[in-house]
């Protein structure tokens, strides 16, 4: 038993007895006695009380020469800050005074609105063998159990930042790319772990504490796939290539050609296309999945819903174009246009217009970008930018390339609409003035007036709509603060670097550097 005290009331004075703890108990604290006495306005001399608490002999110590009223058994209730626990610290009644009953105590808790998690056993134990001046937990809430989001584990590589491996000599291994995912019929493609909503908790006041909301997910079966009966596992329905696009897993079959030229004509296939040789100039390949070309692509047009892999590269001759809904991996891009929603990886980019929705990496033995415009949303990493020959090279990061294209379209549209509006404005004002003056219009003039007024409304509406979209896109450009450009070799004078809505043109040669947006300006720093 812990140490405790008992108030002693006498006809002409008030005293106190301090009892020591048992062998394993805890000594009484001076502050506990002080708080009790001050709450009841019982005067004392601190030095005498401190001495009594320290020695704890159980002998009577006189506190003052005034007679106090007897004190019933009482308690101090402490509520935790999170309202999940209540503990009682009981005080012994003064000598000869009444004890509290269990019913009285429980009714007092109810009066304080403590209604949940009452530890009736702890309360009963106290009243069975009273232990004073000891914190006793009398009520506990139930903690909330937080849940977790649903998750999907894809059994194939579904990353839009996929990159080929590097050889020991620094070159890029374009022949063992491992980014086209071959599967067999019946293979597991994805496994869903459903969300766990968690369990609500409840504090000692009976208030329900709900867990945080969790994210739900479900597997969506695409072409040539099927779900297990419980919807938790997705399987391949055929041999082929598996891809993930916009949350849907699909498996495509594959068609192969030796070359794409006059012997085949243009190719339009809803699965994947593999070309063992070259794609000749002027021909087109459209694939609903992936395109893999082992030879050179000349001035041709390639469009794939997923990845495009060119083991040799593309020499577009100024008219070649490749467009991927996923990644592009190619040995080189020369005099061509390349666009990917995912990443673009190459050993060199020369005099080309290249745009990626994520990142562009130009590495390997060459690793240069020279001439043209190269744009990526997140970052561009290259060995060299520009050339000592002064090729005009524009590097852009910080926004989806399509945003800038759309922004230029909107700017042109607003300019044209504004010009038309200015041209018809004098005529509209003249007609309006004439009508207000009471002068009638001929039928032809009336028809012309109606046409002009309608055109005025349409043009004004178009300008407002396009201006609003322009403002939103410009804000997205301004928010492009995390994008950057890394040069692992040399950045030559004359190249222009855009980050978001800011730009800089290099006047001197710079090596091993990183360009990023700081304090609203494009600045250079170490890698």
The total count of strands amounts to: 40
Structural class by SSE content: alpha/beta
Distance N to C terminus: 67 Å
The tally of domains stands at 5
Residue fraction in strands:
35-45%
Low-pLDDT sequence parts: none
User: The biggest beta sheet, please?
Assistant: 12 strands, mixed
Helix content: 10-25%
Task: State the shape.
Answer: elongated
Overall pLDDT level: 89
Radius of gyration: 40 Å
The number of helical elements comes to 6
Describe this protein's structure.
With 527 residues, the protein is of the alpha/beta class. It has five domains: 4-64, no CATH class; 74-140, no CATH class; 151-248, no CATH class; 251-402, no CATH class; 404-478. The chain is 21% helix and 37% strand. The chain has six helices and 40 strands. Strands 19, 21, 23, 24, 26, 28, 30, 32, 34, 35, 37 and 38 form a twelve-stranded mixed β-sheet that branches. Strands 18-20-22-25-27-29-31-33-36-39-40 form an eleven-stranded mixed β-sheet, with no helix packed on it. A four-stranded antiparallel β-sheet has the order 7-11-15-14, with no helix packed on it.
